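Why should sequence recovery work at all? Because a backbone constrains its sequence more than one might expect. Tight turns favour small or flexible residues, buried strands favour hydrophobic ones, and helices have their own preferences. The token representation captures these environments compactly. In the example below, the structure is given first.
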């Protein structure tokens, strides 16, 4: 699955989509200019190794 996340840093990110992705989804391809921080934004999925590339 590919996620294209808009926003800049932590502003305008799709928070609901990211939280839905925490339900065990794996091997995500993410298109974004920034993964945020460890505990918020796409950083959560990166920290749990759900993002493949």
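From this structural description, the recovered sequence reads:
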């Amino acid at each position: 699955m590919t996620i294209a996340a808009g926003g800049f840093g932590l502003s305008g990110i799709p928070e609901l989509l990211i939280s839905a992705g925490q339900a065990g989804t794996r091997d995500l391809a993410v298109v974004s200019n920034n993964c945020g921080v460890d505990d918020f934004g796409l950083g959560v999925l990166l920290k749990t190794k759900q993002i493949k590339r």
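A few observations help interpret the result. The first strand starts at residue 2 and ends at 4.
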